[in-house]
């Protein structure tokens, strides 16, 4: 019932379209849309692929979108695809693509020069990008921290997060000096944790009390 109430402001499918089913990837500039589809079709049913091109020359910018039919498929692609693709969830369509591309390049193309090659951010094509106001990409893990103004009831919080498959444990911790709630949630896969965070961060439970859900380090390689 709570989840249904939280979706009352818009279509469930619309939310998934914008936040959970599209991924943004870095690809070789020689890739066609068919190449992109071939690389990512193993993770789920693809609705469409698109390659971002220079509006003037029509050449590929080396970036693309892949949209899946289900959020779990997009999460699996992010988790399992080759790290060279630097896959992340795409920003909602209401954010300008130029702004998102700028943030993505700022966060994902910083590397040490090797031989005569330069990092993307030092090549002439990208020199116009502002280097401040960069969005820092959040590290993903299988463990989540949940914070609330109100104390949690173990059974109720477990039941809420158990709606996402793969819940391994829910540990509610109580602070004797405050009335706030704090819990640690762990899933069997990062894909489940990603889905739970995007669905339940900002979720009102109980109504009027918003949950804050963030990733916690779980000892795995943070780059993955």
UniProtKB/TrEMBL annotation:
<protein>
    <submittedName>
        <fullName>RBM45 protein</fullName>
    </submittedName>
</protein>
<dbReference type="Pfam" id="PF00076">
    <property type="entry name" value="RRM_1"/>
</dbReference>
<dbReference type="InterPro" id="IPR012677">
    <property type="entry name" value="Nucleotide-bd_a/b_plait_sf"/>
</dbReference>
<dbReference type="InterPro" id="IPR034207">
    <property type="entry name" value="RBM45_RRM3"/>
</dbReference>
<dbReference type="InterPro" id="IPR052462">
    <property type="entry name" value="SLIRP/GR-RBP-like"/>
</dbReference>
<feature type="domain" description="RRM">
    <location>
        <begin position="21"/>
        <end position="95"/>
    </location>
</feature>
<dbReference type="InterPro" id="IPR035979">
    <property type="entry name" value="RBD_domain_sf"/>
</dbReference>
<dbReference type="GO" id="GO:0003723">
    <property type="term" value="F:RNA binding"/>
</dbReference>
<dbReference type="InterPro" id="IPR000504">
    <property type="entry name" value="RRM_dom"/>
</dbReference>
<dbReference type="InterPro" id="IPR034206">
    <property type="entry name" value="RBM45_RRM2"/>
</dbReference>
<keyword id="KW-0694">RNA-binding</keyword>
């Amino acid at each position: 019932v709570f989840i249904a109430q939280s979706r009352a402001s818009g279509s469930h499918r619309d939310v998934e379209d914008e936040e959970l089913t599209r991924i943004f990837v870095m690809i070789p500039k020689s890739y066609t849309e068919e190449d992109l589809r071939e690389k990512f079709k193993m993770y789920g049913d693809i609705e469409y692929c698109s390659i971002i091109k220079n509006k003037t020359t029509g050449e590929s910018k080396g970036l693309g979108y892949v949209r899946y039919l289900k959020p779990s498929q997009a999460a699996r692609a992010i988790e399992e695809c080759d790290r060279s693709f630097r896959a992340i969830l795409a920003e909602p369509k209401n954010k300008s693509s130029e702004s998102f591309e700028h943030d993505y390049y700022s966060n994902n193309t910083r590397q040490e020069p090797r031989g005569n090659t330069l990092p993307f951010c030092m090549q002439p094509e990208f020199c116009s990008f502002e280097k401040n106001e960069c969005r820092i990409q959040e590290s993903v893990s299988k463990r989540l921290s949940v914070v609330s103004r109100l104390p949690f009831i173990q059974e109720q919080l477990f039941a809420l997060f158990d709606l996402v498959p793969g819940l391994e444990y829910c540990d509610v911790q109580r602070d004797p000096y405050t009335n706030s709630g704090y819990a640690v949630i762990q899933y069997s896969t990062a894909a489940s944790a990603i889905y739970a965070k995007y669905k339940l961060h900002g979720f009102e439970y109980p109504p009027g009390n918003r949950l804050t859900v963030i990733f916690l380090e779980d000892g795995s390689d943070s780059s993955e």
